[in-house]
Design goal:
The longest helix is centred in the C-terminal third of the chain and has 11 residues. The termini are far apart. It is built from 2 helices and 2 strands. Helices cover 29% and strands 6% of the residues. By secondary structure, the chain is mostly helical. The protein has a two-stranded antiparallel sheet with strand order 1-2.
């Protein structure tokens, strides 16, 4: 994945549509901190650098995504 920028406001619903094998699931796993090995560079969500989270802070971050 390269140069992906998403700006989704609270309450909005979006869909990821692309070919099979295009890393849609990997992108979603990166956003929620489940799979950071496929994420290079900077990954921010709600002004939080997801790449730096672990343990309790990662669990707290996931709760704000719901």
């Amino acid at each position: 994945m390269n140069d992906i920028n998403l700006n989704i406001r609270p309450g909005e619903i979006h869909a990821l549509l692309c070919a099979s094998g295009a890393d849609k699931s990997t992108l979603l796993h990166c956003i929620n901190g489940l799979e950071l090995t496929g994420c290079n560079g900077k990954l921010e969500c709600n002004n939080i650098n997801v790449m730096n989270l672990s343990g309790l802070s990662l669990r707290r971050y996931r709760k704000i995504l719901v």
